Amino acid sequence: MELFVELKDAVSALADTxxxxxxxxxxxxxxxxxxxxxxxxxxxxxDPASREVLERSVGELVRDMGAVIGGVDLPRYPGASRAVxxxxxxxVFAAALPFVRAHHRERGIPDDVSRRxxxxxxxxxxxxxRWHGTGGIMTARWLSLHLRGELYQLGRLQFQRGVVPGILxxxxxxxxFSAAEPALGLHIADFMGxxxxxxxxxxxxxxxxxxxxxxxxxxxxxxxxGSWLLDPQLKRYLPADSNIVRFQERFHVRALEEENDMxxxxxxxxxxxxxxxxxxxxxxxxxxxVEHLEGGGHWYGGEGWFLMGED
Length: 311
What we know:
It is a single chain. Helices cover about 50% and strands about 10% of the residues. It has 13 helices and six strands. It has a six-stranded mixed beta sheet with strand order 1-2-3-4-6-5. Helix 1 crosses helix 4 (about 50-60), helix 1 packs across helix 5 and helix 4 (about 50-60) runs parallel beside helix 5 (about 80-105). The longest helix is centred in the first third of the chain and has 26 residues, at about 80-105.
């Protein structure tokens, strides 16, 4: 009953326009993308059915806060407005913020780590605009990891609490680890500058200290990553001292078998709606992504792991 009341109060707080604006700023939403969701919020708050779904969504997001479940899928906005539907997860995240901050305080998470982790919501809005030309949230399950205490931004990299993914278990068991070994999943955020070896080393050092201090009951010896950046074919195009190649070399990599051509196109160029011949080739990475596809090749991506104790 207490949580039920808290959920209603958290949703009701969104009616305070000034407070909602400040919350969106705290979540890293850019100023160009604040006016629309604030204006449209009344359509959610004034409609009983939409408000009920919003309260239920916040409850599902914060239930068992901190448990490692891989994020949650939020219920869909029940109304007909496509514009409101784009923003609906943002209202869920805004209403959940008091619960998130309480969990971070309970775990002793430093304020700077909390802030840098939660502003990924704003990065998600920026990515939506980059890909679709409008503001919104299309990666609600991904961003739920940040709000549930399953993922933290530590320097250049993000670290997700979890276990070794199935595709890598044979490799890690051959190296003497358990198939159920806890592992930190590495993620490379957009708009964060070069993926330099120095920045990666710093992030890994921060992660070793952070998780030992704030999650002492969980021992993380391994880091894993699944990304287009781990496609071994990139080494054919990039210099040996490039940031991407040096990032790959940290890992025991397993190349994936399923074609995934558009993922590198989307992440490098921000869109998959442009003909290959029209894409720029200003950098060695842009040139590699396009010319590999134009030559009849395919991109697959890769999964990899390494020992956290190794720099």
